[in-house]
Amino acid sequence: MTAPIVRVLEHYFEGWEPPAERSGWVPTLCPSHPESRPSAAVNFGKGAVRCHSCGFRGDVISIIREMEGVSFADAQRRAAELSDGSHQPLRGQPERQSGRRVFGRPGTGERAQPVPPWLRR
Ligand SMILES: [Zn+2]
Q: CATH no. for residue 42?
């Protein structure tokens, strides 16, 4: 039993709102960065998400692996825990360093690249 993609995104990305529409690829605000118009899409059936703007993509397992820095097997356990609500953070409090990038490596937050001026909003 694995967790639905929306459960995973809601868990790791505070403030992310699942879209109402649930069939096929549904446009949604990218969970990985702030934006005002949806550039990402989530697929409830496939349990996957992808962003055309920043390249953020993944499924339930790969997102958990990136967010928690765990192996595939551990991510599967996490997914099961998320689906039944028994999820506990692996290492004390979950760390939310390095902004909201999923594909940044955990622990490298303070060496994040500065945002170039043309990308600032
Ligand atoms: Zn994005």
A: 3.90.580.10
